Amino acid sequence: MISRKYSHYVFVATMAMGMTLVLSFVATANNQGFSSQFVAVWLQSVGWSFCIAFPTALFMQSFAKWVTEMLVI
Predict the structure, then answer these.
(1) Confidence band, pLDDT 50/70/90 cuts, at residue 1
(2) Which is it for the CA torsion 70, 53, 13, 59, positive or negative?
(3) Is 24 exposed, middle or buried (0-12, 13-18, 19+ CB in 10 A)?
(4) Residue 22 burial (CB count, 10 A)
(5) In 3D, which of 25, 20, 14 has the Cα closest to residue 49?
(6) What is the pLDDT of residues 24-65, one digit of tens each?
(7) pTM for the predicted model, two decimal places
(8) Distance of CA 29 to the CA centre of its chain
(9) pLDDT tens for residues 7-20?
(10) 34: DSSP letter
(11) Structural contact between residues 61 and 9, judged by C-beta atoms closer than 8 angstroms
């Protein structure tokens, strides 16, 4: 198992992967349609998208928390 001290990274990675799977599925279906190559194109898209989504989610989590603290009384 993974040490508890890495739980933040596991949480962010899980959220990023879930969002990447759904968003890339919708984008691939919209752009490509459900062709015979759909799964291969979708999985390739997931791989590339996760490489962008994970570091972005790490940054955005801190930024979103800061914005929330500024907006909430």
Answers:
(1) confident
(2) negative
(3) buried
(4) 10
(5) 20
(6) 999 999 988 898 999 999 999 999 999 999 999 999 988 999
(7) 0.76
(8) 18
(9) 988 999 999 999 99
(10) S
(11) no
**Strand (E) or helix (H) holding 52:** helix 38-71
CB distance 42 to 25 below 8 Å: yes
Query: Cβ neighbours of residue 32 under 8 Å, at least 6 residues apart?
Result: 38, 41
Token pair in block for residue 2? 């993974």
The type of residue at 34 is F
Tokens of 42: 């979708």
Distance, CA of 16 to CA of 52 (rounded, Å): 9
- Indicate whether 2 pLDDT > 90: no
CB 27 within 8 A of CB 49: no
For residue 73, is pLDDT > 80? no
Cα distances from 44 to residues 17, 25, 39, 48, in angstroms, run: 13, 11, 8, 6
